Write a sequence for this structure.
């Protein structure tokens, strides 16, 4: 660290302000060179390169009286050949400020063609007897050597622009001491790409100086000029040796356990640590400096990378018209973000909340303008609609005529729906029924319902409503033979109702963090991961399946709160407290994904299963009975509505939800609770 500071001081002493200003001025001038300037530079190179070649071959011993006429002749000949080839390959139509490997490849082709043509012409002229030219005195391979010398100088002049830009920025950083030596953890594709990005944009202030990687085969090698110094255990030593100020974890495939271990090492050396998104978040794109961010709780819970069949998803959606309900929500919005990467012809954003639809439309238009579509245009349209009004849905379908419908819209807050059960039924059940009926009417063959783990043995109104939605979709698949399916998964990190967002708001206010119960656990999944698996499941469906995503191991919510406190640089119990508030209405202590007695069938994807019994459940007169339930909800007859739910769903067990506090229930809710327990409860 001391040596690093000393080096900076020496650099600053050597390069005085005057020197730096002068050098930067010259570099800026080089950076402003254009093709008209390069034509003049090329002319000078082409005129002088034969002389330089002869000078090198003859070891500086040139008799000008003997070589002058042959030199002038070949100079004119080679100039005519080169400039014709330059023009043919479009050398003066390139934008050298953004020169790339493709431009270098072009220069190599120019060199090879020039060398070949020059050699042929030079050999032909030598074969004829032109005594006054005396070309035979020039070496046999003179034309080839001259060509490569000339083209090397041409290439140097072109790529000097990019070199000058980078050098100018580095001089600027030296002068202002704004750079921070950065260690990159991970020397894979993502780490190397990130190092390249940081080297290309030094004004970001993160100067990569070394890699660490647990792959011992890479130790000691240099990648983009940076040495792989060792594994993660070498981080403390490297931090001291290089004066590391920032550490960047660039392993998008790493599971949360690995991120935790690396972060703990970085905490011990007290260095600010950053990361980049997981594979699910950068699917379809290349890592850039915009991906650099602070480590978030989602990174610590990241699971091992899951292989998905991107080609099948692409074949399913490319060129299709896709309608997404609830497009302004957390899952609906991420569906839109990932689907645009496979180039559908059109996306229709359908939602009830105008603000959320406006925001996602604005974001998507920005994204679409930046992606390379190879001439394909992605149309984006938005419609505000309430799924409970079937006439409005028919108008939208008639206008849009979609190929695929993905139904992500739903009321999802369990305690809130316990207080507003009619809303849960009319939105989640009636809305799904209307959407399915309109889809069948317009001959839509692909329909995907986003469901929830709370539909398994439901104890809440919300869970029961989503289970009925699954049954509506399955019933439509059986009657039509179309590919209508549902996908279940657990709690989503980062969604609007996520506990993590609640914790963050509480942290901003100084706490405390509120957890309902010390033993409460949840299956957690990140939004991008959930959406990618949903898309994967959608291509597996043949019709009527209820897919279940493997959510891994459940996480204790109190542990989640503790991790978030650590990430914020605070100490639990000292800086901020955790308070237990008790379970809320409709809330389970343990969520159920795979239940006793259910038959789970594997699919070709290791993380996606089919809940066979749920997928094959048949209820007689399902639609008429659901319509009766909906009427009860619409008229506010809560007792009849609850009875209808229990008749339709024998597994619906509100009595398992033992957190009701009868003293706080309204008279209507008391009667519902009594009915669910088949008991008589005094209302006074």
């Amino acid at each position: 660290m001391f040596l690093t500071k000393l080096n900076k001081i020496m650099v600053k002493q050597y390069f005085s302000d005057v020197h730096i200003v002068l050098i930067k001025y010259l570099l800026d001038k080089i950076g402003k060179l254009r093709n008209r300037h390069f034509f003049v530079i090329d002319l000078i190179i082409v005129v002088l390169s034969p002389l330089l070649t002869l000078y090198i071959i003859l070891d500086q011993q040139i008799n000008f009286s003997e070589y002058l006429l042959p030199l002038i002749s070949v100079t004119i000949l080679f100039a005519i050949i080169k400039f014709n080839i330059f023009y043919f390959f479009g050398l003066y139509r390139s934008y050298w400020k953004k020169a790339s490997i493709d431009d270098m490849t072009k220069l190599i082709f120019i060199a090879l063609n020039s060398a070949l043509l020059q050699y042929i012409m030079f050999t032909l002229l030598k074969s004829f007897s032109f005594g006054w030219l005396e070309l035979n005195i020039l070496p046999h391979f003179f034309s080839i050597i001259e060509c490569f010398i000339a083209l090397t100088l041409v290439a140097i002049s072109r790529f000097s622009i990019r070199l000058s830009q980078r050098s100018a920025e580095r001089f600027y950083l030296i002068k202002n001491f704004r750079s921070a030596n950065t260690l990159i953890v991970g020397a894979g594709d993502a780490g190397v790409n990130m190092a390249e990005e940081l080297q290309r944009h030094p004004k970001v202030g993160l100067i990569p100086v070394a890699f660490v990687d647990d792959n011992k085969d890479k130790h000691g090698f240099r990648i983009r000029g940076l040495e792989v110094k060792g594994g993660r255990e070498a981080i403390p030593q490297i931090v001291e040796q290089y004066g590391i100020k920032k550490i960047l974890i660039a392993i998008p495939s790493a599971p949360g356990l690995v991120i935790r271990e690396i972060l703990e090492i970085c905490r011990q050396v007290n260095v600010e640590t950053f990361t980049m998104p997981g594979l699910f978040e950068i699917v379809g794109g290349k890592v850039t400096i915009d991906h650099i961010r602070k480590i978030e709780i989602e990174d610590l819970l990241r699971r091992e990378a899951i292989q998905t069949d991107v080609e099948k998803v692409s074949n399913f959606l490319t060129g299709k018209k896709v309608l997404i309900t609830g497009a302004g929500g957390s899952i609906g919005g991420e569906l839109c973000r990932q689907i645009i990467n496979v180039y559908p012809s059109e996306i229709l954003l359908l939602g009830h909340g105008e603000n959320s639809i406006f925001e996602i439309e604005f974001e998507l238009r920005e994204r679409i303008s930046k992606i390379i579509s190879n001439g394909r245009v992605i149309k984006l349209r938005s419609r505000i609609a309430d799924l409970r009004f079937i006439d409005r849905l028919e108008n939208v379908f008639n206008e849009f005529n979609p190929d695929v419908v993905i139904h992500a819209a739903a009321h999802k807050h369990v305690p809130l729906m316990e207080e507003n059960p009619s809303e849960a039924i009319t939105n989640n059940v009636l809305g799904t029924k209307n959407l399915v009926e309109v889809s069948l009417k317009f001959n839509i063959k692909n329909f995907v319902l986003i469901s929830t783990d709370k539909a398994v043995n439901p104890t809440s109104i919300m869970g029961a409503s989503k289970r009925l939605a699954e049954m509506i979709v399955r019933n439509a698949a059986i009657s039509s033979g179309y590919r209508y399916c549902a996908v279940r998964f657990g709690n989503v990190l980062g969604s609007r109702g996520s506990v993590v967002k609640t914790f963050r708001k509480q942290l901003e206010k100084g706490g405390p963090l509120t957890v309902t119960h010390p033993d409460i656990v949840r299956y957690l999944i990140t939004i991008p991961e959930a959406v990618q698996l949903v898309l994967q499941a959608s291509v597996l469906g043949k019709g009527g399946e209820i897919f279940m995503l493997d959510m891994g191991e459940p996480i204790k919510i109190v542990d989640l709160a503790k991790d978030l406190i650590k990430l914020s640089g605070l100490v639990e119990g000292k800086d901020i407290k955790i308070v237990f508030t008790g379970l809320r209405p409709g809330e389970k202590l343990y969520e159920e994904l795979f239940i006793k007695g259910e038959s789970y069938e594997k699919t070709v994807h290791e993380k996606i299963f089919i809940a066979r019994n749920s997928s094959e459940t048949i209820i007689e007169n399902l639609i008429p009975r659901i319509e009766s339930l909906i009427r009860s909800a619409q008229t506010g007859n809560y007792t009849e509505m609850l009875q209808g739910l229990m008749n339709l769903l024998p597994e619906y067990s509100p009595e398992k939800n033992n957190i009701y506090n009868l003293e706080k229930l309204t008279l209507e809710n008391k009667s519902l609770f009594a009915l669910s327990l088949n008991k008589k409860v005094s209302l006074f």
